[in-house]
Amino acid sequence: MDTITVLLLTFILSVTGLGVFIWSLRRNMFDENPEAASVIFSTGEIGHVEDPSATPEQRAGLQQVVTDGGKAVVDPSLASELKKELVDRLEADQSTAYVTFTFLCCAIVWLVFASTFGLISSIKLHNPEFLTEYAWLTFGRTRTLHLNMVAYGWCPMAAFGVAIWMLPRLLKTRLYGGRFALLGCMLWNAGLIAGLGSIAVGINDGLEWLEIPWQISILLVLGGALIALPLVFTLRNRKVEHLYVSIWYMGAALFWFPVLYLVGKMPGVHFGVEQATMNWWFGHNVLGLYYTPIALASVYYFLPKIVGRPIQSYNLSLIGFWALAFFYGQVGGHHLVGGPVPHWLITLSIVQSMMMIIPVMAFSVNQHLTMRGHFKTMYYSPTLRFIVLGAMMYTVSSFEGSLEALRSVSTVAHFTHFTVAHAHLGLYAFFSIVMFGAIYFVMPRVMSWEWPHPKLIIVHFWLVTLGIGIYVVGLSIGGWLQGLAMLDAAKPFMDSVHVTMPWLEARTVGGAMMTLGHLVFAVHFVQMALRYGTSRVGPALLHKRKSLPERQAIAGA
């Protein structure tokens, strides 16, 4: 079978499968689907805002914007039913408190360490003599340590923590199997610490994103599998008939990752060109089939909850999910353009990358329609600023990724800092910023305590936003100039190095701002964990076990 036939059949199969799925949905795709989309709300909650990170004044302004839009639903006859549902929610939140807190604490620790090593690596790019006294502080090791602390420290710990917290809320039951998640967390972090130690002393498997030796990686696979078990147990005990789209995304992500990592690290299987192909199959899929679904699940939950209205089109959200599952699996091959890889494999990857425009458009249109008439709420809601910005960056990074897969663009951008900028646009500007917003929503529910200094949330937001902006713009420009210089046969290679110097310094400036923002976030998190300061508003939830009358009193507050 020739290349053209393979590609044509793949394209037809993908489009046909997606077409059948779309046909099976209701015709009016952009109409509101109140029954399915309202699962995340309790009785009478639609129209009432919820943002634990906001001050009372911000919350009042946020509610005023929503109420003026005619969306509030106030029915005194539903008060008793709502109170009962809120008591059940308290029980569900309480069952996740300790597990979620454990994961988020680990996430903050890894975020600080990852930021530090990332900043050191950035400085070394334009000042190679910086911290060269010890082998473990050379660029090759600090950069690899930074990548693994982000990819297997901050990102998964934050994702697991947020997902486990959302799970009982979405299924309206308590968390089952929390001990398995805690054991998985212990194994995961033990494996990560051992893996980072091996990298620091110069022992690694030599594959980007897969540097941790496979003998140690067994702990991460086991840990990831154990952490996914509560999803199975809690699903079996759910009290809802309909599974909200966030459950689809989380369920897929929590089971995709152990499979991806197990295949990627399987010893004695991958060699030569096939190993390089697998490497980028894993590198792209861990972003698109693990981090991306968790972040999208978070957006689909927190954004409607904060603005107090269901997502505009539930059908569109399902199209986004299935299109992601259909098209993302083979997009990593475009990183091998120009390599000794079968031509059809590269072309297939480019086709799949362009087809990713479908789920991205489905999500972006849905988000915009949901926020339509509510964008002013971002002025009042600190959490919503992170959530909406991160969701917008998903659109930007995904479209850029599709364009970058084209041979004409890849010819210039390949092997340059442009690719690094794009990677940070996806994993940081999208995923990490969404996780920041989610943590600002979750932690007051975990600790029964409000954030002591809401202004620090604003400081954190602007530091990381401006920082990643400088970082991405600087590296994108520098990387493109670098690619053009490398393509010019009349120029020596060192010209392509010199042209990037000002932009690498800009990268360090942006990275320093992001690191400072992370330190502000970490300090604020510690204050919250220690229950520092006075409680501004009566907490909506748990921390200490309360009797039923006490919980009813809290729910009515």
UniProtKB/TrEMBL annotation:
Protein name: Cbb3-type cytochrome c oxidase subunit I
UniProt keyword terms in alphabetical order: Electron transport, Membrane, Respiratory chain, Transmembrane, Transmembrane helix, Transport
Transmembrane residue ranges: 6-25, 98-120, 149-168, 180-200, 212-235, 242-261, 281-302, 314-331, 343-365, 377-396, 425-444, 456-481, 501-526
Residue span, Cytochrome oxidase subunit I profile domain: 280-557
UniProt keyword Transmembrane present: yes
Organism whose genome encodes this protein: Castellaniella hirudinis
Entries under PROSITE patterns matching the protein: COX1
UniProt cross-references to InterPro entries, sorted A to Z: Cyt_c_oxase-like_su1_dom, Cyt_c_oxase-like_su1_sf, Cyt_C_Oxase_1
Keyword ATP-binding tagged: no
Superkingdom assignment: Bacteria
